[in-house]
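Forum: Protein Structure Q&A
Topic: Joint prediction for protein chains with partners

I've read a bunch of threads here and the consensus seems to be that you should model interacting components together rather than docking separate models afterwards. I'd like to see that in practice. Below is the full input, 668 residues plus whatever partners are listed. Could one of the regulars post the assembled result?
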Amino acid sequence: MFSKILIANRGEIACRVIRSARAMGIATVAVYSDADRNAEHVEMADEAVHIGPSPANQSYLIAEKIIAACKQTGAQAVHPGYGFLSERASFCAALEGEGIAFIGPKVKAIEAMGDKITSKKIAAEAGVSTVPGHMGLIDDEAHAARIAAEIGYPVMIKASAGGGGKGMRIAWNDAEAREGFTRSKSEAASSFGDDRIFIEKFIEEPRHIEIQLIGDSHGNIVYLGERECSIQRRNQKVVEEAPSPFLDAATRKAMGEQSVALAKAVDYQSAGTVEFIVDKNREFFFLEMNTRLQVEHPVTELITGVDLVEQMIRVAAGETLGFSQDDVTLTGWAVESRIYAEDPYRNFLPSIGRLTRYRPPQEGTADGITIRNDTGVTEGSEISMFYDPMVAKLCTYAPTRLEAIDAMADALDRFEIEGIGHNLPFLSALMQHPRWREGRLSTGFIAEAYPDGFGPVPPTDATVERFAIAALLLSHILGARNAQISGARFSQAERRSHEDRVVRIAGEEIIGHIDDAADGYLVRLPGREAMQVSTDWTPGARLAIFNINGESHAIKIEPADAGWRLRQLGVDVRVQVFSPRVAELARLMKEKAAPDTSGLLLCPMPGLIVSIAVSEGDEVQEGQTLAIVEAMKMENVLKAERKGIVARIPVKAGDSLAVDEIIMEFAK
Ligand code: ADP
Ligand code: ADP
Ligand code: MG
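Posted by a regular:
Agreed with the consensus. Here's the joint model:
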């Protein structure tokens, strides 16, 4: 076994690898760029080596720097994580040349599976079911349209070197096939430096289901069941689960055995994933093989009990797999949510900044439910523009699917993140969505469920009541504390706190009454029996657990507008509590109207103006491109929401803007 390994990655996956290595008694070396000087993975590792400036192409992507760091520290092996150098055959070969072990597959397997056209050919030869399509290269637009028509629309146009959902689009007719070919080709050239394009049938109502494999250097290959990753946004995974609610034992076995056949065809060793697209009749088709540890591997670990990183290290050191196919059992259900620094209320635009608050839910197992949070950040960490915007991977594991989903909803409610935009509200809303809860998924689910983008979930009667109770408690606890601080002077106020209270919430007024009781409080609402409630809230805390008639609810609390902003399960509302007299006065006051920003184009995130596509005085049509803003290495095209005339453009290309700064004004 190795005594020291280097992790050629950053963020959560570097921390994840360090954890398993440490448990095996192996010393760890981290590498870091300028931006990651104080990062969690550097803190966690036994040693750390600085490898250059922040941009990945000047640090994490330079094989020579990683090899030099190995030599400097005496690391005998490298775990590449995912992304970065993990699927680069030349890196694996260079390590081999230096006598350093690569904790992953061999060069030949990476090469064969790294290319989608080659891997599809090998898969077909190994008897794996592949997506019908054209296996050859495509010369030009006319050729693309001809082939697409032969396959039959709709088709998927893909980059052979593609990854991360890039360089891929659907075409429904000849015109789209021509345009799609050209756009995919140029995207592939700039993203992967390789513009080879191929076309295959677009599988309708597709579900993404993948098989996890692990193989050793002695020819043993075992599959560890499947993961379903159908919840995707722009072909990128958001929520994953294991097992899949869609597979039966026979399909699982067929997919597993075909995956093993493919892996054997390329002498595969280490962990790998064979991705399939599955149609509504449970027919499955090979998509690609990822020759690395996958982002969503924890859900497999939770249902199989296998530590994939440990196994990768063992087989890289030459050990024989310690279990066979018959030993693999799938128990319970696991769900993973990818927590991204992106603002769901602003069309998922990436967000950067400091994590002023970062408090994940408590990890561990209690009452048959396991919570696991893989992360690479801590409170105070900076989410920079240089790397992937994934902040954490929150997993829950329970005996059944619905229990795992409900545990996830609760864990998301207990997760506190402030300082950056994040997708917690979106994930919370997803957990309540009937299609997800019933497992009626396809990769089109998010686009179909949120056709006009995502907004706060409208509160149900049950949430309105729950939030009203919470607000009554908050105001009661504050009132009691204020009375205590000011002593006898406010004893009358204290007495008054036992009067009725008026809760204003979601356009309603609810009259409630609260009394101290033995283990908390007794709350009365009109037409309801008295409820026994308690909370752990103390003034200033931004998360509290409310126990209402024996059911516990985690609710996030923020002071706002002489009241609070309360959030749970994707619902986000403002609540105020008044005495009946003050409520009467408040009714006379006008609602403060939000400033009218409809005539403005505001910068949706901190970023750089790449270009302005219109001039002052221009008439623009709905959907017309107005400006392009770059943030986190992504270009975001801002389009006109409606027809109008551009009155003023106070900024120009090259300007750096803060969020909500005015890019242009339209004539009224
Ligand atoms: P998974 O299937 O494990 O979710 P993804 O395809 O989402 O994997 O990729 C995992 C990580 O690797 C992401 O950060 C993604 O951006 C990155 N990645 C994958 N393939 C490539 C590639 N060819 N070029 C650049 N980045 C890639
Ligand atoms: P990447 O290397 O970017 O991960 P994949 O080939 O794995 O590319 O495809 C990514 C996603 O795109 C899949 O999970 C699926 O949602 C969708 N997709 C790819 N090919 C097809 C297809 N032929 N039919 C339907 N959906 C597809
Ligand atoms: Mg893929």
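The chain has a mean pLDDT of 93.
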